Amino acid sequence: xANSSTFSxxxxxxxxxxxxEASVDLHVDGNVIGDIACASLVQGEGSRIEGEVKAQSARLxxxxxxxIDAVELVILKTAxxxxxxxxxxxxxxxxxxxxxxxxxxxxxLAAANGRAEAAPLPGADxxxxxxxx
Length: 133
Known about the structure:
Blueprint: E1 7-10, E2 15-17, E3 20-21, E4 25-28, E5 31-33, E6 36-43, E7 48-50, E8 53-60, E9 63-65, E10 68-75, E11 80-82, E12 85-92, E13 97-99, E14 102-104, H1 107-112, E15 128-130
Parallel strand pairs: 1-4, 2-5, 3-6, 4-6, 5-7, 6-8, 7-9, 8-10, 9-11, 10-12, 11-13, 12-14
Antiparallel strand pairs: 13-15
């Protein structure tokens, strides 16, 4: 039985209270109040996540209140992020709002040892960063 096309969907009428773990792709159009850990996350525009997000890849279009840790992260223009972001590759569309700090994966360990390997990005001091023309 092949599960290469297996995914789970939380529709716009669904609110989950508690942590979500999925070994497959997850599409969230509703609300999750809890942490999410999955292979790949796609978040719809009207959805809200209140908790930590851990994923290999994440494509965010709604609101996230919590830390995000993703290898491949895409923040779409409709996204509103309130929390720190850790990534390996990052794409941010013009118009997205992020209130938190950005750090490449692994940079936290270097900073703990007193070595800064990357310059801080705009908004790294906790100010809201709005990407616009």
